[in-house]
Design goal:
heterodimer; A: about 325 residues; alpha+beta; di-copper center containing domain from catechol oxidase; two-stranded antiparallel sheet; B: extended
């Protein structure tokens, strides 16, 4: 049995290069499906677009985000509630399995981006951090209303094309354009810091009533709803561009952010081994999709994992470092 | 869940036929009207409180119809910008304009330029 080791992309060139190569291969892996198969309209006359395996993960995220739990609620089947951490852990596991397949490396571990280490530096220097270098994710988008990424392996001239996009009213469209980023550093906004992370890791319980963005507890702090915007949410808001829409998994940085979020959950689990996942199975029905043994929103098959399935994944992967 | 289960789930020979036969339901339509109502409820000293808030947002005369919620602390969350929380609806709209500038430029592309059947359904209020 192979147990993958997930490493910091800031300092591990091997993990970085493998991830970049894997992303390119999944992005180029034509599934034979198109946006037309899913009745996704073309934006401004865009014809139906081919969907790669990478693009399907974008759609999975969109489907989960648009499944309100219960209907009409702020909470959805992947965010703004307890299932935020287990659902994304499952998403990362399936992406990692696909990366292992195209890389032909069963031991490949998805890298994480320890953004707090960069957040401890000056705001002005954060856009020059290793993760934004040409050999890693590439940098900021160009100035103007079309902030296309111009450097690195996913730049506009690389052939990396965004195929599905969620607009200002949340509607999904077929598009055919480069990746967008619009860093907030120029506005004085910095990434989360190690102090922010350490404060979150001390919090108990895992989650609590009302089980949404008004909850006290670890999940809500890590997701970033404790104002001002923090941790996970702040990384999306800082990078902007494609990272701030419901289709944010278009940007390969999405998975680096969420792998770090998952690492922080693993660190919290190690720090508080007796603290249970909440809510349990006896919670009210309006928490469907969030309770311990509820099926999470699936996409690739009709077999759904549960939050309980995600609590101990030590037979599948570990992190090289849980200390902050 | 183990590695072998994950490897099976990551096989395109498995998931592509499944998705072809079971296409997911995606949000291709807006809310179909300009008014957005949110409801907050609470109990205080045995009394049931219900606060309904209705928003009608326009930018340059055009309605903005994304899904909006108001939290118990009065902050506003707008689903198309899923990682933000705003002090007010005005702050929300400012951010929407900043985040989607090309959508508010005069002469910029508009969804009405779309041509396929999915879009026409969306404008009839589908999805």
């Amino acid at each position: 049995m192979t147990v993958g080791i997930r490493r910091d992309i800031r300092s591990d060139d091997g993990a970085r290069d493998a991830y970049v190569q894997g992303v390119i291969r999944l992005k180029q892996e034509d599934t034979g499906l198109t946006t037309g198969d899913f009745r996704i309209p073309g934006f401004a006359g865009t014809p139906p677009q081919p969907l790669s395996t990478w693009d399907l993960f974008v759609l999975w995220h969109l489907v989960a985000m648009n499944t309100s739990t219960p209907p009409g609620a702020d909470r959805n089947a992947a965010h703004v509630g307890p299932v935020f951490l287990p659902w994304h852990r499952w998403m990362l596991l399936l992406l990692e399995a696909n990366l292992q397949r195209v890389l032909r490396d069963a031991g490949f571990g998805l890298p994480y981006w320890d953004w707090a280490a960069d957040g401890d530096g000056s705001v002005d220097e954060q856009p020059q951090a290793p993760v934004w270098k040409r050999e890693c994710m590439g940098g900021d988008g160009s100035a103007g209303s079309e902030p296309f990424v111009t450097t690195g392996p996913f730049a506009a001239d690389s052939g990396f094309r965004v195929r599905v996009w969620s607009d200002e009213e949340g509607r999904v469209w077929a598009v055919d354009r480069p990746l967008r980023r619009r860093f907030r550093a120029g506005e004085g906004l910095g990434l989360p810091t190690t102090a922010d992370v350490k404060a979150a890791l001390e919090l108990l319980p895992y989650d609590t009533e009302p089980w949404d963005r008004n909850s006290d507890g670890f999940r809500n702090r890590l997701e970033g709803w404790t104002r001002p915007t923090g941790l996970h949410n702040l990384v999306h808001v800082w990078a902007r561009g494609d990272m701030e829409a419901a289709t944010s998994p278009n940007d390969p940085v999405f998975y680096l952010n969420h792998c770090n979020v998952d690492r922080l959950w693993a660190a919290w689990q190690a720090e508080h081994p007796d603290a249970p996942y909440l809510p349990g199975d006896d919670a009210p029905g309006d928490l469907l999709r969030h309770r311990l043994s509820d099926p999470m929103v699936a996409f690739f098959t009709d077999t759904a994992a549960t939050p309980a399935d995600m609590l101990d994944v030590s037979s599948i992967y570990t992190y090289d470092r849980l200390t902050m | 869940m183990d590695n072998s289960e994950l490897a099976r789930a990551a096989d395109p020979r498995v998931f592509v036929p499944y998705l072809r036969d079971n296409p997911p339901r995606l949000p291709t339509g807006g809310h179909g009207h300009g008014a957005i109502e949110t409801v907050r409820t609470a109990t205080h000293r045995g009394h049931e409180i219900v606060v309904r808030t209705t928003y009608e947002i326009e930018v340059d005369g055009r309605p903005l119809k994304g899904h909006l919620n108001v939290g118990n602390d009065g902050s506003v969350h707008y689903h198309p910008l899923p990682n933000y929380s705003f002090d007010s609806a005005l702050d929300l709209v400012r951010q929407v304009i900043d985040s989607f500038p090309e959508r508010f430029e005069a002469g910029g592309p508009h969804p009405a330029d779309a041509t396929d059947s999915g879009h026409r359904e969306a404008h009839r209020g589908g999805a």
